[in-house]
Description:
Layout: E1 6-14, H1 20-29, E2 41-49, E3 52-60, H2 75-80, E4 83-89, H3 93-107, H4 111-114, E5 118-123, H5 135-144, E6 148-151, H6 158-178
Parallel strand pairs: 1-3, 1-4, 4-5, 5-6
Antiparallel strand pairs: 2-3
Bound molecules: guanosine-5'-diphosphate (GDP) and magnesium ion.
Magnesium ion is lined by residues 20-21, 36, 60.
Amino acid sequence: xxxxxxxxxxxxxxxxxxxxxxxxxxxxxxxxxxxxxxxxxxxxxxxxxxxxxxxxxxxxxxxxxxxxxxxxxxxxxxxxxxxxxxxxxxxxxxxxxxxxxxxxxxxxxxxxxxxxxxxxxxxxxxxxxxxxxxxxxxxxxxxxxxxxxxxxxxxxxxxxxxxxxxxxxxxxxxxxxxx
Length: 179
Ligand code: GDP
Ligand code: MG
């Protein structure tokens, strides 16, 4: 049949230092380099998944410094995104609370945005001895907000990173089929 190219705009959100950039770079290059700086950028990455050409646009965001902002996620970001990855660190409970507020903000946003596919990611799974968020807490949040859920290590496991993007793509496909 005809092979049309599928576009997917994917927004990464989460507190500072949780590994948003590490996750992005791992997906783009398969590599983990360690330090990423504070750069906000949109990257394009084309991939063939299940015989289909997919063009990902990945927005690696920065957590806003002005924390008096009650708007956790901007309208501009939600307008743009076909799917969202919410990242926290399993070693940093405050980052999990940021994820909780962000997912609640999204699910209570205006109707056009509230149903956006979301995958919640607990990163830094390799740092078990520093764990501050249980798998159960993460899984329960995802279950109660209708999101996908993975614990991964961007540092040590490329496969987990791939699963996150593939799951989100699947959720985006389902959402599009319903429209
Ligand atoms: P961002 O601020 O959310 O973009 O976070 P970064 O991607 O810049 O990562 C913050 C720090 O955490 C960096 O020093 C990374 O090397 C480190 N980091 C990211 N992912 C992992 C991981 O899975 N395991 C470990 N041990 N460190 C990680
Ligand atoms: Mg970053």
